[in-house]
Amino acid sequence: MADDTLWLAVDDQGQPEIFASVQGEGPSLGSPRTFIRLSGCNLHCVWCDTAYTWNWEGTAFDHETGRKFAPENERIVQTIDEIVSRVADTSPSGIVITGGEPLMQKGRLAPLITAIKEACGPVWVEIETNGSVLPTRDLIPLINQFNVSPKLSHSGNDMAVAQREQSLTAFAALPSSWFKFVISEPGDVEEVLRISDRYKIAHDRVFLMPLGTSSKDIRDRSGWIIDKCLKHGFRFTDRLHIHIFGDTRGT
Ligand code: SF4
Q1: Cα dihedral angle (33, 89, 10, 83), rounded to 10 degrees?
Q2: Is residue 202 part of a domain?
Q3: Would 128 be classed as within a structural domain?
Q4: What is the 3-state secondary structure (H, E, C) of the chain?
Q5: Ligand 1: which residue has its CA nearest to atom 3?
Q6: Is-contact 199 173, C-beta < 8 A?
Q7: Residue nearest to atom 2 of ligand 1 (CA)
Q8: CATH number for the domain including 231?
Q9: How many domains does one find in the chain?
C-alpha cells in the first residue's frame, strides 16, 4: 500500500464510509460531525456493531451474530486526496475518525488530518479508539478529543491485549482523552471502577454507555446504569444514532 493511502470501510452502496451526521455518543453527543470509518481492528468484541470492519471469512473470531465478511466487499483503499475530497464535500465543522480501530493506521492519520485542515479550515478532530494502541507523537497535538473505549471482559477479548497498561496509562495522562465503557451487566461497573482507580481517571471523564443495537436494549439498561452514574459520579451516554437511524451503516 502506498504511503498516502488508507483502508476504509464501505457503506451499503459500496462507497467509502464517509458521512455527515451528529455524534451519537460521548462528550460531543448531538454535535454535527463528518465521520470517516477506517477498516481493521486489533480486537474482536463478540457484540461489535461494526464487525464488517474486521471479522473476515476464514478467521476463528467468535461473534454473537455468527456472521463473517468477505474483505473484498467490505473495505476499500483510498488516497488521502480522495478522502479529503469526500470530507470537504460535507463542509465539516468537525470530524470523527472511527473504525474498527483507527490507530491501526496511525502512521497515516497525521498527514490525513493535516490535509483535511488545509482543505476545510480548523475543524474539530475526534478519534474513537479502543485504547489499546498508542497514538504517534505527531498525532496527539492534532486531536481535540480522544474518545477512548477500553473493552471490558464481557467483550470476549484477551484482557492483556484489550486493557494494555502502556497505552491506557498514556491515554489517562492526556487532557484530550475521555473514557467510554460499554456496560452490559451491573458487575461491569466494578471493572470500570478498578480501571479508573488503577489509571487515576477522574470519574467525570468517564461515560457509561448501555450495550445495545436497538432502542429497546438500550432503554432496558439505561435506568440502572444511570443509578450507577449517580452513585459513582460517572457520566451517562446514550446511543443517539441507534434511536434515530437504527443499527445501520453510514449513520
Ligand atoms: S474494539 Fe470496537 S471496532 Fe474493535 S471489535 Fe471491539 S467494538 Fe468492534
Answers
A1: -100
A2: yes
A3: yes
A4: CCCCEEEEEECCCCCECEEEEECCCHHHCCCEEEEEEECCCCCCCCCCCCHHHCCECCCCCCCCCCCCECHHHHEEEEEHHHHHHHHHCCCCCEEEEECCCHHHHHHHHHHHHHHHHHHHCCCEEEEEECCCCCCCCCCHHHCCEEEECCCCHHHCCCHHHHCCHHHHHHHHHCCCEEEEEEECCCHHHHHHHHHHHHCCCCHHHEEEEECCCCHHHHHHHHHHHHHHHHHHCCEECCCHHHHHHCCCCCC
A5: 100
A6: no
A7: 100
A8: 3.20.20.70
A9: 1
Distance from Cα 118 to the centre of ligand 1, integer Å: 30
Amino acid in position 153: S
Ligand 1 in contact with 45 (CB < 6 A)?
Answer: yes
Ligand 1 atom closest to the CA of 130, numbered from 1: 1
Residue 93 within any structural domain of the chain: yes
Residue to mutate, 25, 42, 43, ligand 1, most ligand atoms under 8 Å from C-beta: 43
Residue 210: give the domain boundaries.
5-245
What confidence tens digit (pLDDT) does each residue in 1-11 have? 778 999 999 99
- Assess whether pLDDT exceeds 80 at residue 243: yes
Least Cα distance to 38 among 5, 65, 6 occurs for 6
Q: pLDDT class for 113, splitting at 50, 70, 90?
A: very high
Amino acid type, 72: E
User: Measuring CA to CA, which residue among 116, 109, 127 is closest to residue 28?
Assistant: 127
Find the 91 Cα to ligand 1 centroid distance in Å.
28
Chain centre to alpha carbon of residue 181: 11
CA dihedral defined by 105, 22, 118, 7, rounded to 10 degrees?
20
Please tell me the predicted confidence (pLDDT) of residue 36.
98
